[in-house]
Automatic annotation (TrEMBL):
InterPro entries: PQQD. It holds the Pfam family PqqD. This is PqqD family protein.
Length: 122
C-alpha cells in the first residue's frame, strides 16, 4: 500500500530530510521484532548499595512498543526521517494518522531526552 500523506509545510519538509544514527555506546537487543534498550545501572549510589548487599541489578531494560521498535530498527545513519515515515506507514497502516508530526516528535524525544540517537545530517 502506498503511503498517501498530505502536503507538508516548509519546516516539516526540512525536518523530514534529517538523518539520524544510533549513538555509540547504546546497547540494545531485538527479540521477536521488539527492541530492548539495555542501560547500565552504574550511578555512584547504585554501586555503593551493591557493595552493602542491596540487590541492585547491573543493568535494566526498556522495552519499546511496536512503533518505537520499528522506527528504532530503521535508524541507520543513511535513511531520512521521511524515508522512515514511508516505511512505517507501509508497515503499520494505523501509523498513517498524523504520521509526520508524530514521527518528528518521537525522533526529537529519542535525540534530546533519551539521547539514544544523534543527528548525522540536517
Amino acid at each position: 500500500m502506498t503511503n498517501q500523506q498530505p502536503a507538508v509545510n516548509e519546516e516539516t519538509a526540512r525536518l523530514l530530510q534529517r538523518v539520524y544514527r544510533i549513538k555509540d555506546p547504546i546497547h540494545y537487543e531485538v527479540r521477536d521484532g521488539v527492541v530492548f534498550i539495555i542501560k547500565e545501572n552504574n550511578a555512584k549510589i547504585q554501586k555503593v548499595l551493591r557493595k552493602i548487599r542491596y540487590k541492585i541489578p547491573k543493568t535494566s531494560e526498556m522495552e519499546l512498543d511496536e512503533y518505537g521498535s520499528f522506527i528504532f530498527q530503521q535508524i541507520d545513519g543513511v535513511r531520512t526521517v521521511g524515508e522512515i515515515a514511508e516505511l512505517l506507514g507501509d508497515a503499520i497502516e494505523e501509523a498513517n494518522n498524523q504520521l509526520y508530526d508524530r514521527l518528528i516528535i518521537y525522533m526529537h524525544h529519542l535525540e534530546k531526552n533519551e539521547k539514544y540517537i544523534e543527528l548525522v545530517k540536517k
